[in-house]
Amino acid sequence: MMDIKSLIKIPLIVAVVAIIGRLITEQTGAPGALNMIFGVTWLHLLVPFYLATRIAKSGAAKPFLTLLASLSVFTLLARVLVAATYSLAYAMSWGAPRFQVEGGGVVGEGVTPLEGYLLIPLQNLVITGAAVIVIGMILGSVTLAILRRRAPAASTT
After folding, report:
1. Residues forming a β-bridge with 107
2. Which pTM was predicted?
């Protein structure tokens, strides 16, 4: 199996930059459309294609297992970073709409410290993480299958 660390290094760096960028734009009162540009959600849709391409080019012995493992580790780490922002939002009462109770966040009336620091961020991590891995495996597997099918044809010409 390929080295997962080398596969997810660049996407994880991009995720950190996106998270920091989004926090900056939200805290400075930038328009919502700009805030949406800086989002990890976009990465969860793009990273499976990136990973599948890298895995296909590597000729990994178990490409779909490698895809699952690398996608799972990337998703877990990215979602932990996002969960940390929700915990910080609770601690600092950040006003961005996504952190408000009405938007499924942690800031607002009735949120206990246990919910704000741990339960809501953990719920977000687990539910979103599971959904993202399933969607990512579908996107990545289709990409991997197409790339693997093309590889033998390209080598015979």
Report:
1. 100
2. 0.91
In the chain, what is the straight-line distance between the N-terminal and C-terminal CA atoms, in Å?
29
C-alpha 73/C-alpha 116 separation (Å) is: 25
| Domain count across the chain | 1
Whose CA is closest to 85, among 23, 39, 31?
A: 23
pLDDT in tens, 94-125: 999 999 999 889 999 999 999 999 999 999 99
Residue 129's SS3 state is helix
Tokens of 63: 């490409």
Q: Domain of 32?
A: 4-156
Give the contacts of 157 (CB within 8 A, at least 6 positions apart). Answer: none
- Cβ atoms < 10 Å from Cβ of 23: 17
Residue 100: DSSP 8-state: B
Nearest-Å Rg of the Cα atoms of the chain is 18
